[in-house]
Design brief:
Helix content: 25-40%
Number of helices: 12
Largest sheet: 8 strands, parallel
Shape: globular
């Protein structure tokens, strides 16, 4: 039996408190789309489309075009036949559809968050990391991610040296290059981390280096993953479900960083992860609480190794309790 839903959407903009700097450049404003599906009995499902085009999803404009061309009444079939070229749309519509059918609570209700210890907190790139970890530690975070491949490697290695000697014992640290290292630099970072691992005096764990090389250098990352003790996680290489499946088929058995918001269909992602029992780290795309609820639900189901999830990003935005009502009522 086909269900019909009344479909409405609104676009939003949220400014970062300070620019987010990665190897891809500076990011100042998070833009996305909130969806609302209402079934014939009046039950409501919420979804969010939060694309990151430079990471492999569609652009915001493509997502808006898709939403604009849909009729006001849509069906299950329409939701489940969104093309793979629109992975953020697949996620947004399908999570709204799952939400409606499972009676989630209102999105402005507090998000049922795991304890901060099960989250990884993102540190700012460069020296700023040395000043910010402490505040986040006091909030309960014990796993941190630091962006590398942003400044000169000699400078970053110096800051890294300071960082590992100031972080408390039993902290886990992840290094994220966003594909920004050369092959030589990746070897240097991995060697440096291996040397630290071998030092019994250092009670801190370098958990992994994330996406050291660009996506097209998959074979070199595969080779590096067997040459060093320090683990490598793929991120940009596995942005969408199609890419994730392709890397698995080509032999990747290391860590997969999954950003549900741009990965594509949640039901197909669930099926793939369960079928292949892959080692996953779930991660944010700087979404609002709406997409986060759906993403955390997937993370809870599909994290067999209980690695900290990359959703410690609240400190990047102003906390606006009323943004959701304002967005919906003002338009």
């Amino acid at each position: 039996m086909t269900n019909d839903y009344r479909f409405e959407f609104r676009s939003y903009q949220r400014r970062f408190l300070r620019s987010l700097t990665t190897n891809h450049g500076k990011w100042d404003i998070r833009e996305g789309i909130i969806l609302r599906l209402t079934d014939e009995s009046g039950k409501v499902g919420w979804g969010e489309i939060a694309p990151i085009s430079w990471f492999g999803s569609e652009t915001l404009e493509e997502a808006l075009d898709f939403c604009r061309q849909l009729p006001e009444e849509i069906t299950d079939e329409i939701i489940l036949s969104i093309p793979d070229e629109l992975p953020a749309c697949q996620f947004g519509f399908e999570s709204a559809w799952e939400w409606e059918s499972e009676l989630f609570s209102m999105p402005n209700a507090p998000c049922p968050m795991p304890h901060a210890q099960s989250f990884s907190a993102l540190l700012p790139s460069g020296k700023a990391a040395l000043n910010q970890w402490e505040t986040l530690w006091q909030q309960g975070y014990r796993t941190f991610k630091w962006k590398i491949g942003v400044d000169a490697i000699a400078d970053e290695l110096k800051i890294f040296e300071s960082l590992i000697h100031t972080l408390p014992a039993f902290t886990k640290l992840r290094l994220d290059a966003n594909g920004g290292l050369s092959y030589e630099e990746a070897n240097l970072w991995l060697r440096t981390c291996d040397n630290l691992k071998a030092n019994p005096e250092l009670p801190l764990e370098i958990e992994f280096i994330e996406q050291p090389l660009p996506v097209e250098q998959f074979q070199q990352m595969l080779e590096l993953s067997t040459s060093y003790e320090t683990a490598i996680a793929l991120d940009e290489s596995v942005a969408t479900l199609g890419q994730l499946a392709a890397c698995y088929q080509q032999g990747w058995r290391g860590i997969f960083v999954i950003k549900p918001g741009i990965a594509g269909s949640p039901s197909r992602l669930r099926k793939f992860c369960q079928q292949h029992q892959i080692d996953t780290v779930f991660s944010s795309v700087f979404e609002t609480a709406i997409a986060r609820l759906a993403a955390l639900k997937l993370a809870a189901e599909l994290s067999p190794n209980n690695r900290a999830i990359g959703f410690g990003i609240d400190h990047f935005f102003e906390q606006e309790e009323t943004w959701f009502q304002t967005l919906w009522n003002d338009l």
